[in-house]
Amino acid sequence: MRLAKGGRSWGMCASPNGLMTTRASSRPVVLVHGIWDSSTRLEPLRAGLASRGLAKATAIDLLPNDGRAVIPLLAAQVAHAVDQAIATVDGDDRRVDVVGFSMGALVTRYYLQRGGGRSRVRRFVSISGPHHGTLNALALPLAGVRQMRPNSDLLRDLATDSDPWGPVEVHTVWTPYDLMILPARSSKLPGARSERVIPVKMHRWMITDPRVLDHVANLLLT
Length: 222
Prior knowledge:
This protein is α/β, with parallel strands linked by helices. The protein has one domain (3-221): Alpha/Beta hydrolase fold, catalytic domain (Rossmann fold), CATH 3.40.50.1820. It is built from 6 helices and 9 strands; from the N terminus they run E-E-E-E-H-E-H-E-H-E-H-H-E-E-H. Helix 2 packs across helix 3. The chain is globular. Residues 2-12 and 15-21 have low confidence and may be disordered.
């Protein structure tokens, strides 16, 4: 697992009333990519959040990234990245925020529910994650991909928690046009504090669309 560093900047962020405001946050944000992706592929998301005031957004590399690794193994890498980010935080509230995209959202969810993340994370934003599985996962026999199949053992286990998030604020963002997460409503998460459906035409564009970037920035800057 490698860290890809982000720059510092102050930026304009759309407020709920549509006005542009200048805000900034010193809280680290860990960005977790999806299958076959990397920190480089998340650069539009990192840069978009940085320009909106989240200067300490940092993408990580999950290794391997091709579906061979099981979700718990990848979640351990998220735990390590969160611990590294927390080490940079001053003050009493040393929690960080995490944004997971696609498979990275499910990996982060596992970290929160099974890897001790509920005491380390303030807010979790899930972007187009296969939380109820995706039919596309039926196409590959790889261990991590099998865990993303609908009704997999891993998904059934996570669904048994009566209080999956504890003090963590959980937010979901997804598009009804998603052809990677099938059905698209699999990106919904029970118990999430908020859910936003943004009609982006492709799964991949969910980390580049300005509407998504504005919404995620607003969630993390408040």
